[in-house]
Amino acid sequence: MEAMDWLKGARVALVHDWLTGMRGGEKVLDCLCELFPEADLFTLIHNRGSVSERIENRRIIPSFIDRLPGKKKRYRHYLPLFPSAIELLDLRAYDLILSTSHCVAKGVRTPPHALHISYLHTPMRYVWDMYEDYFGPERVDGLSGKLIPLFANYLRMWDVASSNRVDHFLANSRHVARRIWRYYRREAEVMYPPVDTGRFALSERSGDFYLIISALVPYKRVDLAVSLFNRTGKPLHVIGSGPEKERLKSVSKPNIRFFDWLPDEDVARHTADCRALLFPGEEDFGIVPVEAQACGKPVIAYAKGGALETVVGCDGADGRTATGVFFAEQTEASLEDAVRRCETIAWDPGAIRSHALKFSRERFLGDMRTFIESRWKEFQLAGRRQFPHPGA
Questions:
Q1: What pLDDT, on a 0 to 100 scale, did the predictor assign at position 2?
Q2: What is the pLDDT of residue 390?
Q3: Rounded to an integer, what distance in angstroms lies between the CA atom of residue 194 and that of residue 285?
Q4: Domains, the chain
Q5: What is the pTM for the complete model shown?
């Protein structure tokens, strides 16, 4: 990566919620690590070896949550402590702070002389619009059911107040930009996240099975697909893990196969061999549908959230300019109708892949570099920081 001479010796810090696996947020972080190879990385929790080599091979400073019992698998139980943990991270020595956040990373305390740019995957979904999906009365009861609303109210207040610590917001979709405005009353520029489209080759073959690649948590609505495919008997492969996995497996018939998270090459092979990808939940962006399209595979998606920005819907039988079909309601009947329509369309795998390439990693790296450089130069012209540090 070309040296960024415009930084003129400024110290850069990266802040990320937690390092427990390579999902969409970590792929954004990996790109920032490529742009800023010398930057220190601050996080709530670091499970060693769980993320890419590029992320692991730098100075990582975790919060006190990293030293608590059970943090490796049950770190989410410490949610009420997350705001305090992120605020206790000491960033006084840094001049440019880049956070990637879907929980509390954007609320890190920054010194007055520093510029803070936050790439937001979503405002904290479990205390805002998906609160009932995580903590509704059918999911928690007893003492937890009484305490969680109190903690959620505190987290909402903290989330709004801490948004003022960010100089510039980037959103991973127009959908998220609207939510940033709704909850924080802050403008955000949209920058679609990086998708490693080069990892997926165009596939002209089509197997008989449908595919889901997802964390198995309630809002992903994998249960909707399981219920439908239990009834129809069509083959369905589900790749992923999460708290819903055992329950879903227990109610699934033999035509539905479950796989844990697989190596990249196995995921690419499953995607290349599938008939279509199912995407039954509402996502802020959704990298998996773009990856499937990079293989030339159509996507059957719920018509809400980021999928509306990454999938080109088809209403007729001609799929030459479309990349998938939408279903309007999260019901079995609506999903079944979308599957039926998908099976009647003549898809063009080459056109589907061409659409996916608009979301490539190379595009993201260029856009992110340009944005940060522009904001940094504006910041310097405003006279808010001079180098070297006073007393250096």
A1: 57
A2: 41
A3: 11
A4: 5-194+360-381 (3.40.50.2000), 197-358 (3.40.50.2000)
A5: 0.80
